[in-house]
Structure formats: C-alpha cells, structure tokens
Amino acid sequence: MLYGSELWQLNCNDIVELEKVQNITVRIMQGLLPGISGSAARGLLGLPPIEAEVDKRKLYFLGRLILMSHGVQCRKIFLMRLIRWKWNHTNTLKGFIPNIVRILLKYDLMDFLTGYILSDQFPNKSAWKKIVKKHIYEYYNNIWQEKISTHGQLKLYAEVHPVNEISPWWLLARMKPDFMKQINDVLRLLCGSYKIKGKRVNKPETYRDYCNVCNSNFLNPVKHALLYCNGTSQLREELWEWINDTMPIEMTVHLASLTDMEFLLVILGKKLEVLCANTDIWTELLLKSASYVSFCYRSNLVS
Q1: Is residue 227 part of a domain?
Q2: If DSSP codes are grouped into helix, strand and coil, which group holds residue 159?
Q3: Out of the domains of life, which is the source (predicted)?
Q4: N or C: which end of the chain has fewer CB within 10 A?
C-alpha cells in the first residue's frame, strides 16, 4: 500500500483518503462497528495514523541518502538539491527536499539536517531510526491521547488503554486463541461498538433505558450490564468465588476494597501494580473477566 511512499507528494485530501482506508481496515480486522473512532481502533493495535508511517519512511530515506557512499549518484543529486534549497528556500520549490524539511520541522528534527549542512555530522543508521521513531511516537501519541480523552463514548477506553500501544488483550488472545471471541467482545465494549434495541449509544453515561434481562430501568448500559443487572448476578457471584478461592489473599483484599467503577475498569483490563506483579494470576483473572464481560456484552449490549 505504501510502496514508494518515500517520494510521494501528498496533499491533505490524499492523507484523508489514506486514513479512511486504514481506519476501515482496522475496524474490520477487530470486528468493530462502522463509525467507531478510528483513533480507538488503531490504538488497540498500537498503530499511528498512516501519515506518521509515510513521514517515518521519508525520514528513514533521508538518513539513507545522507549516509550513502560519497560516489553514489543519487547522493550527489540529493546534495545538489539540498544546496539549491539552502540558498533558495524562500522560493516555492517543490519535491523531496522542501517536503522533508517540512517533516523535519514538524517533528522538531531540523537541527539534525542543519548540523549535517554545517559540519557534515549525522547519526548512524540505527541511531537515526531510534530518534525518528521516538519523535514521531511522542508527536502522535499526544494527539491520540487528546482525541481519546475528549471522546464521549471512550471514557472507559481512555482509563483502560491510556497509551497508543498494542492492547494486552490482543497479546493475550495470541497466547490463548480459544478465548478470541470473549476478548474481542471486551474490546468491542471498550470502543463502544454495540447497539441497544438497534441503536448506537453515543453517550453511555447519560443513556437511560429499560433492561429486558432483569426487567428494571437503568442508567449507563455498560455499568448496569457488568455491575448491577440481576440477570448476570449469578455469574458475578461465580467470578467473586473464583477470586476468593484462587487469588492470593492480598490481591483478593485489594479487589474487594475497590469501588464499583474501579472494579469495572479492572475486569476490562486496567493494569494495577498489585495485580500485575504475579503474571500468571493476572492472566487468569483477565481470562475469567473476559468470559464474564463477553456474556454480559452478548446478553445486555447486543440487541
């Protein structure tokens, strides 16, 4: 899809179209409903927007050009155009050089090119790649966090998955493929990928309705389904029995001391230091939680 993107000259419309394709793809891959936040869908896979990948490839290509042997023809052409840009950059030049300069400025990397022009100094290949990755990740992670934190449908998502990296749920699914369906349901719930009575719920915190499972009114379908619905109370009791019988006493006490909301976040995958210390127990808790959440999701949140 991005073959030759090092030399692409993209405008805003091109980037929008590429990101549409990326967002549709990551939604389909994860079984999410159309219209679910592209940032949320990408975040579960630890993917930046497609623009970041194109920029990264262009910056890598810049590094390769600079570090090539002196006699290589394409390096000579690059240096000629770089010198031309240096003395004529106020003009409306087009092509790779002005494009890469804009990208360097965008990620606060211009000092590296300036240093190369003035002193012929530039990081080696591996160091340059690390620098580029770090700056691009920091730039887009800040944007991603702002989008997630201000999205009304992603309050739980923002608490459980605060950084743009591959979700522990997907890592767990790789280890335990038999739980793929249950884990996928957890991620759908986090992204707000569900319908109640055929309608999407855009603001679950203020959504009121009548539960056909336990025949009662509720506020917030997710909290009701996972914490309060009488139709799922037996499963909740079984989950707590497993916690009491299996987990170390200090972990059990800690879970019992949590508020309802804090416990909800834990069973949706939020990491707590006291729980993650024992990897095996934490994994078992996630698997038990996934089974419980999946049942609640399919009983209460898919209709």
Answers
A1: yes
A2: helix
A3: Eukaryota
A4: N
Distance in angstroms (rounded) separating the CA atoms of residues 41 and 29:
9
CA 297 → CA 30, 86, 150, 195, 294, distances in Å? 16, 59, 24, 10, 5
Q: 121 and 182 in one domain? A: no
At which residue do the structure tokens 């891959």 appear?
Answer: 29
What is the pTM for the complete model shown? Answer: 0.86
Q: Alpha helix locations (H) across 107-167?
A: 110-119, 125-149, 155-160
Give dist(CA 139, CA 106) in Å, integer. Answer: 9
Q: Which one of 87, 119, 150 terminates a domain? A: 150
> CA-to-CA distance for 120 and 108, rounded, in angstroms?
19
**Pair (53, 136) in one structural domain:** yes
Please name the helix (run of DSSP H) or strand (run of DSSP E) that holds residue 196, with its range, or none: strand 195-196
- Do 297 and 182 lie in one domain? The reply is yes
- Tell me how far apart the alpha carbons of residues 288 and 280 are, in angstroms, rounded to a whole number: 12
Name the residue among 298, 282, 291, 150 with its Cα closest to residue 229.
298
Give the residue among 191, 264, 181 at the shortest CA–CA distance from 43.
Answer: 191
Q: What are phi and psi of 120, to 5 degrees?
A: 60, 30
